[in-house]
Amino acid sequence: MALSTEESSRLAALLSGQDERVTTRWTEIVTSSLRGRLSQAELRRQVQDLHHAIVTTSEQGTIDLSADGAGELRAALSELSRGRARQGFTATETTISVFALKDVLAELVQETGGPNALPDFVAFSKLVDEMGLFTFESFVRTRESLIADQAEQLLELSTPVVKLWEGVVAVPLVGTLDSARAQVVMERLLQTLVDTGSPYAIIDITGVPAVDTQVAQHILKTVVAARLMGADCIISGIRPQIAQTIVALGIEFGDIATKASLADALRHVLRLNGVETTRRQQPRRGF
User: Fold this and answer.
1) Which of 35, 117, 132, 283 is the most buried (most CB within 10 A)?
2) Are strands 2-3 and 63-64 parallel, antiparallel or unpaired?
């Protein structure tokens, strides 16, 4: 929705002639919708930025939110959306902050009167609606970006590579192993092998709820990649249920060593290195 040159001129005159009143009233209306979650000073600054952007854009002539001349207004709306998204506000709360301008314009147009009062208010309302839609879309894009970044961070945190012994690293997997996570596991493991020069890597799947053909393929690719880096891999955490599933699916791990627990895998590696290991004997209970 674009305002004509005459409509833009009247909007600029309406808003710029009463700067303090407009920002104060606009801030009051938005305050009630945010329920004190944003300070008055911060909210007033946001409203002033929007007010200034609208006046500056309308003074240039025809207002078209998609045109180059509305760049400052789009920037102000985008900044509002990004800030609110990072602060945990909802898209509705953010958009209402823009729609509140309608109430201010209604009061001003009613006081001004004149033959163009009603047509002007309809045109101004359509512009505010477009601004609100732009704000909503900007908010959604920001939230999607934040969620994607958080998901990536959680993915990295959920796939740690730990050093168990000199020359031995382990990747304890917990949860479902999909393609995206398998790629992260492989990258982190290979980078750790390069950084530490470890010749052995243990992939522990104790925390993986189920192993199907796809999960097995991901594990095998990781093992092959590690071998190309000169490291031998041992798979630990083969529980009875998983062992039965692997046999039923006909999955072959070939010459890859497999152990029931991480402790057994570590003992296996230590024995390969000539380190003597003994199991702690459980004390017998007398009767």
Assistant:
1) 132
2) antiparallel
The residue that leads in pLDDT, 246 or 95, is: 95
Mean pLDDT of 214-236: 89
Question: Which of 139, 140, 27, 144 minimizes the C-alpha distance to 83?
Answer: 139
The Cα–Cα gap between 107 and 101 comes to: 10
Q: Which two tokens stand for residue 257?
A: 């060593």
Long-range contacts of 256-263 (CB under 8 A, 24+ apart): 256/220, 256/223, 257/232, 257/233, 258/234, 259/234, 259/235, 260/236, 261/206, 261/236, 261/237, 262/170, 262/172, 262/202, 262/204, 262/206, 262/236, 262/237
CB-count burial class (<10 Å; 0-12, 13-18, 19+) for 168: buried
Q: Comparing 268 with 3, which gets the higher pLDDT?
A: 268
Q: pLDDT band at 163, cuts 50/70/90?
A: confident
